[in-house]
Structure formats: C-alpha cells, structure tokens
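Structure tokens please, single chain.
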Amino acid sequence: MNTLQRILCVEDEPDIQAVARMALELVGGFQVLVCGSGEQALREVQAFAPDLILLDVMMPGMDGPGTLRALRALPGVAAVPVAFMTAKVQPDEVAHYRSLGALDVIAKPFDPMALPAQVRAVWERRHV
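Here you go.
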C-alpha cells in the first residue's frame, strides 16, 4: 500500500503557504512543494510526483476547479487524490467540490497542528 509522503500545496497567500508548509513538514513529516498558482502547479506537478494535492479554491488567474481540470488531463497526475482548501464549506459547496473530483474539503482557516491529521484522514478516504 502506498504511504502518504509527498504533498503538493497550491495556495496563493504567502502566509497560508508558510503555515501549511511548516505544519505539514514539521508536524506531519511530509515532503511539501508549495506552488503559488495553478499555472505553477501544472509546470511542477509531474517532476514532484505528489501523493496528494491540496488545492486552494480561490486564486487569481486559474482557480482551484480550473487547476483540478487541467491536472486531471496530465499523464500520471489524473489519479492523484485532491482535497480543496477553502473557507466556503457549506454542505452544498462541499458537495459541489466533491462533484468536481475532490476527495474532500479542508476548511480555512485551518488549525496548523490538526492539518497533518486532516490530510491523513483525506488520504485514508481515497480507498473507501
């Protein structure tokens, strides 16, 4: 069984990038690549070969859903599990994000100490 080691975090806010990276690396023990835009993620995702992608919904330029559609078209990336990160977590919004192909939604602002456990829970759900 694959283990969760490499996480691609796509987030345009530098403060959130820093907190997510520290939480995932220091608390979670993961290897993390942070991309500041959907476009950057598309350029770097194949070389990094993430096990899981955390994707901000609202970003300038290419938003999260647009980035997800583009990622799904890339060889070797289509099957990588994705979780959206957003403040929009009403049940109908979460259902919409899942309908786009996300495994789950992590609410922002997130608790940095809880983020690695949330990410692991998403990872476990991919086989359910």
